[in-house]
Amino acid sequence: MDARDLLLPGFAMAALTMLVMFRMGFERLSQLARERIHPQAVATSAQMSARLKDSRAADNFRNLFELPVLFYLALLVGVNQDLASPLTVGLAWAFVGLRVAHSAIHCSYNKVPHRFAVYALGALVLWTLWGVLLAGVL
Questions:
Q1: In Å, what is the CA distance from 86 to each residue of 22, 47, 64, 101?
Q2: Model's pTM, two decimal places?
């Protein structure tokens, strides 16, 4: 394994974030046009939540800047410390897969127990990755 193997899951997470961003933009613009809402009427997050009914993609987009920030940092630590291994790469891909599942649930039927279970499992995978990296650094 080399550093590139550890970076590929980061590119996949960036692609997921981009897809959710495009979905969010499409949904927002569609609703603004459909309901004839002037863009200035939703200039703040408070105005946006009061006027726009479906915020699933926007909520998920914001969520992709929470735990994934620690994921991106973990990848950089792994690359910097030459810790790419089948275990670290496997954990990284597992996190990406769980985030894809989380986004799919969040942006579609949005059942909180399902979404939370996938989120919690993803967090566990991420903390495991950090533990493996710490052990490699020590």
A1: 33, 47, 25, 22
A2: 0.93
